[in-house]
Specification:
Chain lengths: 117, 115
């Protein structure tokens, strides 16, 4: 069975602080994909990034960066110089390649990030 | 840009009513999904479809059915709405073949209240 754990339920920071959202996953699949989604108050889940299990290269996109470490089964997400518009719920998700797991995303419970001015 | 459109953002229905939630995607995706999101429970898959007229149960299909008559449209049906189906419903879509890691794109969500 697949599992995604986001241990941080809520995080509150002041604007311009850096913040890291943690994600730990479990899967028996040898090939899998990891995702991060953002859900602002409007409700839509916005896709941020996808990473496959063969590619541990970390990625930076503007103020966002992702640290994928297969050895610790973690896929952490960092926002640098946070802004009020970053306030949202962030979900980490996993999609495997075996049996019933090859079609659906398994989501973590989400982390509510509040960035205060 | 991928567009997944859910027909209703906010609905209030009475217990026992039949409820239709409609979803349309414009990217010719084979896969379409219905998720339910509840506080503390996260997102849970209700049903998904990988082709027209094809459907598979997800993790929580009880009390729901689906219909996929056209590739771009996937409907979620609550045959007899109950108060425990008050929730946020999210439709999603993705490509099917080849790369199983294809990204799943979501709609804006439909907030359903059953009274």
């Amino acid at each position: 069975a697949q599992k995604v754990t986001q241990a941080q339920t809520e995080i509150s920071v002041v604007e311009k602080e850096d913040v890291t959202l943690d994600c730990v996953y479990e899967t028996r699949d040898t090939t899998y994909y990891l995702f991060w989604y953002k859900q602002p108050p409007s409700g839509e889940l916005v896709f941020l990034i996808r990473r496959n299990s063969f590619d541990e290269q970390n990625e930076i996109s503007g103020r966002y960066s992702w640290n994928f470490q297969k050895s610790t089964s973690s896929f952490n997400f960092t926002i640098t110089a946070s802004q009020v518009v970053d306030s949202a719920v962030y979900f980490c998700a996993l999609r495997g390649n075996s049996g019933g797991s090859n079609y659906k995303l398994t989501f973590g419970k989400g982390t509510l990030l509040t960035v205060n001015p | 840009d991928v567009k997944v459109t859910q027909s209703s953002r906010y609905l209030v229905k009475r217990t026992g009513e039949k409820v239709f939630l409609e979803c349309v995607q414009d990217m010719d995706h084979e896969n379409m999904f219905w998720y339910r999101q509840d506080p503390g429970l996260g997102l849970r898959l209700i049903y998904f479809s990988y082709d027209v007229k094809m459907k598979e149960k997800g993790d929580i299909p009880e009390g729901y059915s689906v219909s996929r008559e056209k590739k771009e449209r996937f409907s979620l049906i609550l045959e007899s709405a109950s108060t425990n189906q008050t929730s946020m419903y999210l439709c999603a879509s993705s490509f099917l073949s080849g790369n199983f890691g294809n990204t799943i794109y979501f709609g804006e969500g439909s907030w359903l209240t059953v009274v």
